[in-house]
Amino acid sequence: MESVRRLFLSGFVFCLWTGSVCSGADIDQCRELLLYGEYEKCITTTAEAIEQGVYGESWHLVKAEAEFKTGKYEESLKTIQSALERYGWSIRLRWLAMQVVPYLNQDELVLKYTEEIAQMVQASPWRYTDAENLVTLGHFVIEQGADVKAAQDAFFTRSRRNNPLHRSPALALGNLALEKRDFQLAAEMFGPAFEDHPDDPDITFGLALAFAGSDREVSNGYLQVTLEKNSNHIPALLFQVDHFIDAEQYEEASALIERTLKVNPHHPEALAYQSVIALLQEETEAGMKARNLALSTWKKNPLVDHTIGRKLSQKYRFEQGATFQEQALEFDPNFTPAKKQLIQDLLRLGREEEGWKLADEVHEKDPYDVAVYNLVTLRDELQKFETLEASGFQIRMSTDEAKIYGHRVIQLLTEAREVLTQKYKQELPETILVEIFPRPADFEVRTFGMPGVVGYLGVCFGDVITANSPASQDANPVNLESVLWHEFAHVVTLNKTNNRMPRWLSEGISVYEERQRDASWGEHLNVTYRNMILGGELSPIGEMSEMFLSPKSPVHVQFAYYQSSLIVEHIIEKYGFDSLLKVLDDLAVGMNINESLPRHTAPLKQLDEELVMYATELATEYGKNVEWSEPAIAEFIQSSEPAKDALAWADENPKHYLGLKAWGRILVEKGDSKTAIQLYEKAVELFPSEPGPESPLLTLAKLYQEQGENDKEKQALLKLVKIDDDAVAAFFRLMEIANDEKDWEAVKQFASKLLAVKPLIAQPHAALAAASEHLEESESAIDAMDSLLALKPADRADLYYRKAIQQQKLGQHDSARRSVLQALEEAPRYREALVLLQGLVDSNE
Ligand SMILES: [Zn+2]
């Protein structure tokens, strides 16, 4: 021990001496060159210093790392090997060598260095307790398969505890959190490190990644700082490339790839991205050429195919994507990222058996992987689901929900399949898989691979649809039928284009088809969209995909859906439905949308202008005579004679919609329903198109009801449901009114509309059952009664009895007998049931 200490001491002195006298630069300056991306200068400076005999492994490490970053793999390994002659005890040099040698295809060296590190640490563990060595050892043991949590505590956390200001442990902890997709933790790790090292591009880049999913603006800020500090920061450049590819901005992406390749002409990920861009544009040959280049150094680098496949899958090309993951796994059977991606691909392709099998395998090897753990848990949950088999579909729902409204889902999807396949002239695979989840977390794991991705009602992957069930939407129920119709339209268009479709067109057609099926479904023009259109917020068609990818706000996403549907609507109206079909055919063979649209419609620029005109006209017509400014509500509230003031104000401001509504609300609060009605009537007359809870039609209907004005109430509600597909209260009331009027067709109609939104409550099923009985539609009556029975009502005997009668009418005597026996089981002295049973027995004899 003694000798070692002396060796270090003398080395230290020596280093100081050479540092100041000979090399002209100290090691910190060289580290900065490395950190700020001046790799060539870094290599020359360190080389000079080493030539002159500086002491310390760091000089060699910095040089080798700069060589590694610039793709000079041979030089890098040479630097390390010659350094090892002098610093034979260095594990950091060996660890770096282990990163380099795969690029030289010298796998045997990985093994050699692995063994050496293990031996050295075992022999003299005390030697490797400084910040850098602890971090290196942490990385090393994790790669050797150690428990990540334990390794994190034993090495990274310990290193940080001993060196709270050092960048390395903070970086290691932050990056590990990023790897585990724990972004909040990552932000907590990088945050304080940023305070200590505000100029460190690796730390600012960590922050950019940590905020990428939650706050795009903050993330972008950190990304800009990163690139200002180090314009050659390859991970930051590639992060942007990834984003540009998502946005279909391939030119911008390619420019950044070029920039990356200037730093490292062999960079495998950069070349993989180059390959993806070519493949996405159907340039297969160029794509494979770039892939071969990416593999020209490290021949079995699994990251290359994994990256290509991952991006293809993000563009819905799951089949191709899966093939690349399989290739990556052939290169390295233990490459977990490829396995995880492949699981998702297989599940999205509907190849469930293979997908789950692989999930089990990965889970067994790595029980701590959160994503895979979630999937395996989900699979257990799914096994409790009921599978409904229908022609063309396999529908998975929770057992309870399947019994209550499964038959309605089948009916709707069957209709969608019939209507949309005919309309789009597209045959579909035999079975489309539809999964409906009562628990949002299960939906999120199945759909996105992780919980916490909120805001989606349903998602379509081509031949697989996932959706949230109404059970998860108590507060804001949405129309499940319109969601399923929308998703099924995706099934058709994705199949028609072989999944080669820009997001906006796919969404545009789906929203458009919702409105075609039911005028109240889908996105509609509203005041917000009107203002956005007139405020110049329409996007050119060429930038539509970006609107989905980086929206300024949640409203902008909704607006993107709406605008996309307007483009589709305009194309169909002006150029005919066939031209849309031709565009889809072009996409199917790999043509770019911006090339195809002019072929069958008009040049993009003209199309953009037409769209602006079309949308502006709609927006101008929408509430044309309305004055849209905000009223001075504070003044209204202070009025001592609200009825008088309101009417006088209305006379003076007959076009002030929001003002009329505000007065109406104040009068309702004061209990003056009659005057309130006058105000609301003026509002509705001026602008009858507002759906939702703020609609004056809803309040007006309530006021009419209070006044006993039944017909006016009904008319107001009818107006509302024409423009609102989830107006639960209105459906309820219309169902009631129709029931009082014994208008059974109307009862059926509104019960059905209510069921599309709230299929898990009894009232609409009960109303539908009764209406169907009156209309002598026995099958529909039986379905509704089965739904009711599944809801476990109190009076089951009566329901079984009524069901038996309907079954008898259909000539289903055995079933009828079973039902009546069930009725008698509930109520043994049920006289009518006994009579019916006797009749059924007699008719059988
Ligand atoms: Zn959609």
UniProtKB/TrEMBL annotation:
Please report the residue spans annotated as repeat (TPR): 657-690
Per UniProt, the keywords (alphabetical) are: TPR repeat
Question: Locate the Peptidase MA-like domain: which residues?
Answer: 484-597
Q: Which PROSITE patterns match?
A: TPR
UniProt xrefs under Pfam families: Peptidase_MA_2, TPR_16, TPR_8
What the entry lists under PANTHER family is as follows: CELL DIVISION CYCLE 16,23,27, CELL DIVISION CYCLE PROTEIN 27 HOMOLOG
Protein name (record): Photosystem I assembly protein Ycf3
The organism is Thalassoglobus polymorphus
